Structure to design on (283 residues):
């Protein structure tokens, strides 16, 4: 069943565990994630960046594909179909109209006032349709969709202002995590994370889940993080397996064999991540 973020994150927040957000890149990615999460009976968030949406054809194609997979594979767990880093109101509206159950509006590159105005526009449209909204404050840097940005940490006041003025459903405060690979140890501001969690009633989101040591992931969950975004990690696991398969099978040309040679590697990483996040089974 397709659900919004609120449906799965509020329970996670109350019971101190996290739900994985895995970015999808193609049909196979979505299929493997849905299959393993269904097998483990855990809810999952499928994140779609604007770049990935463009690659796959657009939001309508993805919505039809995910709905089709849920039906054909008999997926019983809750699935949230979520836009990752939507850059404009128009982009979020397109996804909502195509059947996405959740959107992230990322207006964090603007000053707070403009971030609030854009986020509020999206919330108004989304909430009328039962769609949840995540927003970002401060700015999460690193590399995603081949775009590299620098980071600015969020302040407690900015988080409070963004929430009070928009009534978003989940907040991604930039607190030291980055997209893609880390240079050295990630330096997460757990103190501010805890304070934000103490004053805001909504779930918190950690972007840049790849490369954060296990103990820091556990600490982030203890400080109120309930959604952890993971993208690069699965890409690395998949490409490593595919590279090995191709080097051992020089004559293979069937794309189904090539792409699915990374299936087990993706599923294994997902299983490990679910254990780390302590994601609870659905009843
Ligand atoms: P990573 O690619 O670092 O796992 O980050 C994913 C992410 O935060 C998507 O929004």
């Amino acid at each position: 069943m397709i659900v919004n973020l609120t449906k799965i994150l509020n329970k996670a927040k109350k019971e101190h565990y996290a739900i994985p957000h895995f970015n999808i890149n193609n049909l196979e990615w979505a299929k493997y994630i849905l299959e393993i999460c269904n097998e483990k009976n855990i809810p999952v968030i499928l994140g779609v960046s604007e770049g990935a949406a463009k690659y796959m054809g657009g939001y309508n194609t993805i919505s039809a594909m995910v709905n089709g997979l849920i039906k054909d594979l008999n997926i019983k767990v809750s699935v949230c179909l979520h836009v990752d880093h939507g850059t404009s109101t128009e982009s979020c509206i397109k996804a909502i109209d195509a059947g996405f159950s959740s959107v992230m509006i990322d207006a964090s590159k603007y000053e707070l006032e403009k971030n609030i105005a854009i986020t509020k526009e999206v919330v108004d449209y989304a909430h009328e349709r039962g769609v949840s909204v995540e927003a970002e404050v401060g700015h999460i840097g690193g590399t995603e969709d081949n775009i590299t940005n620098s980071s600015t940490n969020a302040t407690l006041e900015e988080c409070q202002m963004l929430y009070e003025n928009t009534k978003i459903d989940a907040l991604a405060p930039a607190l030291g995590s980055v997209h893609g690979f880390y240079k050295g140890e990630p330096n997460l501001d757990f103190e501010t994370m805890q304070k934000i969690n103490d004053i805001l009633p909504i779930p918190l989101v950690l972007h840049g889940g790849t490369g954060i040591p296990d103990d820091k992931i556990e600490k982030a969950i203890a400080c109120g993080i309930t959604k952890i975004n993971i993208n690069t990690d699965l890409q690395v696991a998949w490409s490593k397996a595919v590279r090995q398969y191709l080097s051992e099978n020089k004559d293979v040309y069937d794309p189904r064999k090539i792409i699915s040679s990374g299936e087990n590697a993706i599923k294994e990483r997902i299983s490990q991540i679910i254990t780390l996040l302590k994601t609870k089974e659905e009843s």
Summary: The chain has one domain: 5-277. The pocket of 1,3-dihydroxyacetonephosphate is lined by residues 23, 47, 84, 179-180, 207-210, 229-233 (CB under 6 Å).
